[in-house]
Amino acid sequence: MKKALITGITGQDGFYLTKLLLEKGYEVSGTIRRSSSINTDRIDPLISQFSEDGQLKLYYSDLIDSSSLNNLVNNIEPDEIYNLAAQSHVQVSFKNPVYTSQTGTLGTLSLLEAVKNSNKKIRFYQASSSEMYGGINNEKLDESSLFEPKSPYAAAKVFSHNVTKIYRDSYDLFCANGILFNHESPHRGETFVTRKITKAVGRIAAGMQKYVTLGNLEAHRDWGFAGDYVEGMWKMLQVDHPDDWVLATGETHTVKEFAKMAFEYVGLDSERYIKISEKYFRPNEVEHLLGDYSKAAKELNWKPKTSFKELVQMMVEHDVEEASREKVLIENNLLKPTWENPI
Protein backbone atom coordinates (compact mmCIF):
# COMPACT_ATOMS: atom_id res chain seq x y z
CA MET A 1 0.00 0.00 0.00
CA LYS A 2 1.41 3.38 -1.02
CA LYS A 3 1.60 6.13 1.57
CA ALA A 4 0.90 9.80 0.91
CA LEU A 5 1.34 12.85 3.14
CA ILE A 6 -0.83 15.88 2.35
CA THR A 7 -0.32 19.29 3.90
CA GLY A 8 -3.48 21.38 3.73
CA ILE A 9 -5.68 18.30 3.78
CA THR A 10 -8.69 20.22 5.14
CA GLY A 11 -8.84 22.58 2.15
CA GLN A 12 -10.73 22.19 -1.09
CA ASP A 13 -7.87 20.49 -2.95
CA GLY A 14 -7.02 18.46 0.13
CA PHE A 15 -10.53 17.00 0.15
CA TYR A 16 -10.57 16.01 -3.51
CA LEU A 17 -7.00 14.69 -3.49
CA THR A 18 -7.58 12.68 -0.31
CA LYS A 19 -10.73 11.17 -1.80
CA LEU A 20 -8.86 10.25 -4.98
CA LEU A 21 -5.92 8.65 -3.17
CA LEU A 22 -8.11 6.71 -0.76
CA GLU A 23 -10.09 5.33 -3.69
CA LYS A 24 -6.78 4.24 -5.23
CA GLY A 25 -5.92 2.32 -2.05
CA TYR A 26 -3.38 4.74 -0.57
CA GLU A 27 -2.81 5.19 3.13
CA VAL A 28 -3.21 8.95 3.52
CA SER A 29 -1.80 11.14 6.28
CA GLY A 30 -2.69 14.80 6.54
CA THR A 31 -1.59 17.79 8.58
CA ILE A 32 -3.91 20.08 10.51
CA ARG A 33 -3.00 23.15 12.51
CA ARG A 34 -3.50 23.04 16.26
CA SER A 35 -6.02 25.73 17.24
CA SER A 36 -8.99 26.29 19.52
CA SER A 37 -11.37 25.09 16.82
CA ILE A 38 -10.34 22.40 14.35
CA ASN A 39 -12.11 22.74 11.02
CA THR A 40 -12.29 19.36 9.31
CA ASP A 41 -15.78 19.88 7.88
CA ARG A 42 -14.79 19.12 4.30
CA ILE A 43 -13.10 15.82 5.07
CA ASP A 44 -15.38 14.65 7.92
CA PRO A 45 -17.16 12.14 5.62
CA LEU A 46 -13.78 10.70 4.67
CA ILE A 47 -12.67 10.59 8.30
CA SER A 48 -15.74 8.62 9.34
CA GLN A 49 -15.30 6.19 6.45
CA PHE A 50 -11.55 5.62 6.40
CA SER A 51 -9.98 6.58 9.75
CA GLU A 52 -11.15 3.57 11.75
CA ASP A 53 -9.10 1.10 9.73
CA GLY A 54 -6.09 3.43 9.71
CA GLN A 55 -6.24 4.32 6.02
CA LEU A 56 -6.66 8.02 6.86
CA LYS A 57 -4.64 9.63 9.63
CA LEU A 58 -4.44 13.24 10.79
CA TYR A 59 -1.51 14.88 12.56
CA TYR A 60 -1.02 18.26 14.19
CA SER A 61 1.70 20.22 12.47
CA ASP A 62 2.57 23.72 11.35
CA LEU A 63 4.23 24.92 8.16
CA ILE A 64 6.53 27.28 10.03
CA ASP A 65 7.66 24.56 12.46
CA SER A 66 10.40 22.76 10.54
CA SER A 67 11.06 20.20 13.28
CA SER A 68 7.44 19.03 13.34
CA LEU A 69 7.43 18.59 9.57
CA ASN A 70 10.75 16.76 9.59
CA ASN A 71 9.59 14.42 12.36
CA LEU A 72 6.36 13.78 10.53
CA VAL A 73 8.12 12.79 7.31
CA ASN A 74 10.55 10.55 9.20
CA ASN A 75 7.78 8.82 11.14
CA ILE A 76 5.33 8.33 8.28
CA GLU A 77 7.91 7.56 5.57
CA PRO A 78 5.54 8.49 2.75
CA ASP A 79 6.03 7.50 -0.87
CA GLU A 80 4.53 10.81 -1.98
CA ILE A 81 4.17 14.27 -0.41
CA TYR A 82 1.65 16.80 -1.69
CA ASN A 83 2.36 20.29 -0.34
CA LEU A 84 -1.00 22.05 -0.67
CA ALA A 85 -1.02 24.11 2.52
CA ALA A 86 -0.74 27.90 2.36
CA GLN A 87 -2.58 31.09 3.19
CA SER A 88 -4.19 30.98 -0.22
CA HIS A 89 -6.44 34.04 -0.39
CA VAL A 90 -4.73 36.69 -2.51
CA GLN A 91 -6.52 39.70 -1.00
CA VAL A 92 -5.79 38.47 2.53
CA SER A 93 -2.10 38.20 1.61
CA PHE A 94 -1.95 42.01 1.33
CA LYS A 95 -3.36 42.34 4.85
CA ASN A 96 -1.19 39.58 6.34
CA PRO A 97 1.94 39.58 4.15
CA VAL A 98 4.36 38.24 6.77
CA TYR A 99 2.23 35.24 7.72
CA THR A 100 1.41 34.55 4.06
CA SER A 101 5.09 34.66 3.13
CA GLN A 102 6.18 32.47 6.04
CA THR A 103 3.63 29.73 5.41
CA GLY A 104 4.19 29.90 1.67
CA THR A 105 7.96 29.51 1.81
CA LEU A 106 9.22 27.95 5.06
CA GLY A 107 6.94 24.94 4.82
CA THR A 108 8.17 24.11 1.34
CA LEU A 109 11.81 24.43 2.39
CA SER A 110 11.29 22.25 5.48
CA LEU A 111 9.58 19.53 3.47
CA LEU A 112 12.25 19.59 0.77
CA GLU A 113 14.94 19.28 3.42
CA ALA A 114 13.11 16.31 4.91
CA VAL A 115 12.83 14.69 1.47
CA LYS A 116 16.53 15.33 0.78
CA ASN A 117 17.61 13.80 4.09
CA SER A 118 15.28 10.81 3.96
CA ASN A 119 16.59 7.35 3.21
CA LYS A 120 13.43 6.75 1.20
CA LYS A 121 12.96 7.96 -2.38
CA ILE A 122 10.03 10.31 -1.77
CA ARG A 123 8.19 11.98 -4.63
CA PHE A 124 7.28 15.61 -3.87
CA TYR A 125 4.50 17.75 -5.35
CA GLN A 126 4.52 21.53 -4.91
CA ALA A 127 1.28 23.45 -5.48
CA SER A 128 2.29 26.39 -7.63
CA SER A 129 -0.24 28.93 -8.87
CA SER A 130 -1.24 30.85 -12.00
CA GLU A 131 -1.08 33.98 -9.80
CA MET A 132 2.71 33.79 -10.27
CA TYR A 133 2.31 35.08 -13.85
CA GLY A 134 0.72 38.37 -12.86
CA GLY A 135 -1.73 38.43 -15.77
CA ILE A 136 -0.13 41.39 -17.52
CA ASN A 137 -0.89 40.40 -21.13
CA ASN A 138 -3.88 38.70 -22.74
CA GLU A 139 -1.96 35.63 -23.79
CA LYS A 140 -1.95 31.91 -23.13
CA LEU A 141 0.51 31.06 -20.39
CA ASP A 142 2.56 27.89 -20.26
CA GLU A 143 5.50 26.45 -18.32
CA SER A 144 7.99 28.78 -20.05
CA SER A 145 6.06 32.03 -19.51
CA LEU A 146 7.64 34.66 -17.28
CA PHE A 147 6.54 35.15 -13.68
CA GLU A 148 5.48 38.66 -12.63
CA PRO A 149 3.92 38.20 -9.16
CA LYS A 150 1.57 40.98 -8.04
CA SER A 151 0.82 39.94 -4.46
CA PRO A 152 2.63 38.58 -1.40
CA TYR A 153 0.83 35.28 -2.03
CA ALA A 154 2.11 35.08 -5.60
CA ALA A 155 5.65 36.08 -4.57
CA ALA A 156 5.72 33.30 -1.96
CA LYS A 157 4.52 30.83 -4.58
CA VAL A 158 7.29 31.89 -6.97
CA PHE A 159 9.86 31.29 -4.25
CA SER A 160 8.51 27.82 -3.49
CA HIS A 161 8.25 26.99 -7.19
CA ASN A 162 11.86 27.98 -7.80
CA VAL A 163 13.28 26.35 -4.68
CA THR A 164 11.52 23.11 -5.62
CA LYS A 165 13.31 23.21 -8.98
CA ILE A 166 16.60 23.99 -7.21
CA TYR A 167 16.30 20.94 -4.95
CA ARG A 168 15.28 18.79 -7.92
CA ASP A 169 18.31 19.82 -9.95
CA SER A 170 20.81 20.02 -7.08
CA TYR A 171 20.02 16.77 -5.27
CA ASP A 172 18.43 14.66 -8.02
CA LEU A 173 15.11 14.52 -6.17
CA PHE A 174 11.73 13.72 -7.68
CA CYS A 175 10.10 17.14 -7.24
CA ALA A 176 7.26 18.35 -9.46
CA ASN A 177 5.57 21.74 -9.68
CA GLY A 178 1.93 21.89 -10.64
CA ILE A 179 1.06 25.36 -11.96
CA LEU A 180 -2.68 25.25 -11.48
CA PHE A 181 -4.99 27.90 -12.83
CA ASN A 182 -8.13 28.78 -10.86
CA HIS A 183 -10.04 25.67 -9.87
CA GLU A 184 -13.34 25.74 -8.04
CA SER A 185 -15.99 23.45 -6.57
CA PRO A 186 -18.80 23.33 -4.01
CA HIS A 187 -16.00 22.90 -1.46
CA ARG A 188 -14.34 26.20 -2.37
CA GLY A 189 -13.93 28.60 0.55
CA GLU A 190 -16.80 31.07 0.84
CA THR A 191 -14.52 34.12 0.66
CA PHE A 192 -13.35 33.22 -2.87
CA VAL A 193 -15.32 35.09 -5.52
CA THR A 194 -16.88 32.09 -7.31
CA ARG A 195 -18.21 30.52 -4.12
CA LYS A 196 -19.20 33.92 -2.76
CA ILE A 197 -21.36 34.33 -5.85
CA THR A 198 -22.98 30.88 -5.81
CA LYS A 199 -23.54 31.06 -2.05
CA ALA A 200 -25.30 34.40 -2.57
CA VAL A 201 -27.37 33.01 -5.45
CA GLY A 202 -28.67 30.24 -3.22
CA ARG A 203 -29.53 32.59 -0.36
CA ILE A 204 -31.07 35.25 -2.60
CA ALA A 205 -33.21 32.62 -4.33
CA ALA A 206 -34.36 31.48 -0.87
CA GLY A 207 -35.19 35.03 0.21
CA MET A 208 -32.47 35.23 2.85
CA GLN A 209 -30.14 37.75 1.19
CA LYS A 210 -30.80 40.89 -0.85
CA TYR A 211 -27.57 41.31 -2.82
CA VAL A 212 -23.91 40.36 -3.10
CA THR A 213 -21.02 42.82 -3.00
CA LEU A 214 -18.13 42.17 -5.39
CA GLY A 215 -15.01 43.89 -6.69
CA ASN A 216 -13.58 43.83 -10.23
CA LEU A 217 -16.20 42.24 -12.50
CA GLU A 218 -13.94 42.46 -15.56
CA ALA A 219 -11.15 40.24 -14.21
CA HIS A 220 -10.66 37.29 -16.59
CA ARG A 221 -9.92 33.87 -15.15
CA ASP A 222 -9.37 30.34 -16.46
CA TRP A 223 -11.76 28.40 -14.18
CA GLY A 224 -11.81 24.61 -13.91
CA PHE A 225 -13.13 21.97 -11.52
CA ALA A 226 -10.89 21.07 -8.57
CA GLY A 227 -11.85 17.40 -8.83
CA ASP A 228 -10.30 17.26 -12.31
CA TYR A 229 -7.16 19.08 -11.23
CA VAL A 230 -6.19 16.79 -8.34
CA GLU A 231 -6.05 13.92 -10.81
CA GLY A 232 -3.42 15.94 -12.65
CA MET A 233 -1.49 16.40 -9.39
CA TRP A 234 -1.43 12.66 -8.87
CA LYS A 235 -0.35 12.00 -12.45
CA MET A 236 2.62 14.33 -12.03
CA LEU A 237 4.05 11.96 -9.42
CA GLN A 238 3.47 8.80 -11.48
CA VAL A 239 5.70 9.61 -14.47
CA ASP A 240 9.32 8.53 -14.87
CA HIS A 241 10.91 11.97 -14.66
CA PRO A 242 9.86 15.03 -12.61
CA ASP A 243 9.03 18.31 -14.28
CA ASP A 244 6.66 21.29 -14.13
CA TRP A 245 3.19 21.25 -15.69
CA VAL A 246 0.37 23.75 -16.20
CA LEU A 247 -3.18 22.57 -15.51
CA ALA A 248 -5.89 24.78 -16.99
CA THR A 249 -8.93 24.70 -19.27
CA GLY A 250 -7.61 26.91 -22.07
CA GLU A 251 -10.55 29.30 -21.93
CA THR A 252 -11.22 32.41 -19.92
CA HIS A 253 -14.33 34.08 -18.49
CA THR A 254 -14.94 37.26 -16.51
CA VAL A 255 -16.32 37.45 -12.99
CA LYS A 256 -19.31 39.17 -14.57
CA GLU A 257 -19.89 36.15 -16.86
CA PHE A 258 -19.66 33.76 -13.93
CA ALA A 259 -22.18 35.78 -11.94
CA LYS A 260 -24.55 36.15 -14.89
CA MET A 261 -24.61 32.41 -15.53
CA ALA A 262 -25.01 31.60 -11.84
CA PHE A 263 -27.99 33.91 -11.38
CA GLU A 264 -29.60 32.84 -14.66
CA TYR A 265 -29.54 29.24 -13.47
CA VAL A 266 -32.15 30.16 -10.84
CA GLY A 267 -34.02 32.53 -13.15
CA LEU A 268 -32.63 35.80 -11.80
CA ASP A 269 -30.99 38.81 -13.46
CA SER A 270 -27.53 39.24 -11.93
CA GLU A 271 -27.45 43.02 -12.50
CA ARG A 272 -30.30 43.49 -10.01
CA TYR A 273 -28.40 41.79 -7.18
CA ILE A 274 -24.76 42.87 -7.53
CA LYS A 275 -23.15 45.84 -5.79
CA ILE A 276 -19.57 46.95 -6.35
CA SER A 277 -17.23 48.02 -3.57
CA GLU A 278 -13.67 49.33 -3.80
CA LYS A 279 -12.99 47.25 -0.69
CA TYR A 280 -12.88 44.13 -2.85
CA PHE A 281 -10.44 45.49 -5.43
CA ARG A 282 -6.84 44.35 -5.07
CA PRO A 283 -4.08 46.93 -4.56
CA ASN A 284 -2.38 45.44 -7.65
CA GLU A 285 -4.99 43.80 -9.88
CA VAL A 286 -4.37 40.68 -11.96
CA GLU A 287 -6.56 41.30 -14.99
CA HIS A 288 -6.19 38.25 -17.25
CA LEU A 289 -5.14 34.65 -16.63
CA LEU A 290 -5.41 32.02 -19.36
CA GLY A 291 -3.54 28.72 -19.30
CA ASP A 292 -2.09 26.41 -21.95
CA TYR A 293 -2.26 22.82 -20.71
CA SER A 294 -0.94 21.19 -23.91
CA LYS A 295 2.17 19.84 -22.18
CA ALA A 296 0.07 18.09 -19.52
CA ALA A 297 -2.21 16.73 -22.23
CA LYS A 298 0.76 15.29 -24.13
CA GLU A 299 2.93 14.03 -21.27
CA LEU A 300 0.38 13.21 -18.55
CA ASN A 301 -2.61 12.36 -20.71
CA TRP A 302 -4.55 14.90 -18.66
CA LYS A 303 -7.28 17.25 -19.74
CA PRO A 304 -10.16 18.97 -17.93
CA LYS A 305 -13.40 16.98 -17.99
CA THR A 306 -15.80 19.58 -16.57
CA SER A 307 -16.98 22.52 -18.68
CA PHE A 308 -17.39 26.06 -17.37
CA LYS A 309 -21.18 25.75 -17.56
CA GLU A 310 -21.13 22.41 -15.72
CA LEU A 311 -18.89 23.90 -13.01
CA VAL A 312 -21.19 26.88 -12.42
CA GLN A 313 -24.29 24.67 -12.34
CA MET A 314 -22.66 22.22 -9.93
CA MET A 315 -21.79 25.00 -7.50
CA VAL A 316 -25.16 26.75 -7.77
CA GLU A 317 -27.10 23.51 -7.24
CA HIS A 318 -25.08 22.75 -4.13
CA ASP A 319 -25.59 26.21 -2.65
CA VAL A 320 -29.29 26.33 -3.50
CA GLU A 321 -29.75 23.10 -1.55
CA GLU A 322 -27.60 24.42 1.29
CA ALA A 323 -29.63 27.64 1.47
CA SER A 324 -32.89 25.65 1.58
CA ARG A 325 -31.62 23.64 4.56
CA GLU A 326 -30.41 26.83 6.25
CA LYS A 327 -33.80 28.47 5.80
CA VAL A 328 -35.62 25.53 7.40
CA LEU A 329 -33.30 25.71 10.42
CA ILE A 330 -33.88 29.46 10.78
CA GLU A 331 -37.66 29.09 10.48
CA ASN A 332 -37.57 26.46 13.22
CA ASN A 333 -35.43 28.69 15.46
CA LEU A 334 -32.55 26.23 15.27
CA LEU A 335 -30.23 28.77 13.61
CA LYS A 336 -29.98 32.53 13.88
CA PRO A 337 -29.83 34.53 10.63
CA THR A 338 -26.66 36.56 10.23
CA TRP A 339 -27.00 40.30 10.74
CA GLU A 340 -26.00 41.10 7.16
CA ASN A 341 -28.31 38.57 5.52
CA PRO A 342 -31.63 38.66 7.34
CA ILE A 343 -34.75 36.98 5.99
Task: Describe the model.
- This protein is α/β, with parallel strands linked by helices.
- It has two domains: about 5-185 and about 225-245, Rossmann fold (3-Layer(aba) Sandwich), CATH 3.40.50.720; about 195-220 and about 250-290 and about 305-330, Alpha-Beta Complex (UDP-galactose 4-epimerase, domain 1).
- The chain has eleven helices and 13 strands.
- It has helices at about 10-25, 45-50, 65-75, 90-95, 95-115, 150-170, 195-205, 225-235, 255-265, 295-300, 310-330; strands at about 5, 25-30, 55-60, 80-85, 125-130, 175-180, 185, 210-215, 220, 225, 245, 255, 275.
List the helices and strands and how they pair.
Layout: E1 3-7, H1 12-23, E2 27-32, H2 44-50, E3 56-60, H3 66-76, E4 80-83, H4 90-95, H5 97-117, E5 123-129, H6 152-171, E6 174-180, E7 183-184, H7 193-205, E8 212-214, E9 220-221, E10 224-225, H8 226-236, E11 244-247, E12 253-254, H9 255-265, E13 274-276, H10 294-299, H11 308-331
Parallel strand pairs: 1-2, 1-4, 2-3, 4-5, 5-6, 6-11, 7-10, 8-13
Antiparallel strand pairs: 9-12
Helix pairs in contact: 1-8, 3-5, 5-6, 7-9, 7-11, 9-11
- Please compute the radius of gyration using only Cα atoms: 20 Å
Instruction: Estimate percent helicity.
Output: 40-55%
Strand content: 15-25%
Roughly what is the average pLDDT, rounded to an integer?
Answer: 91
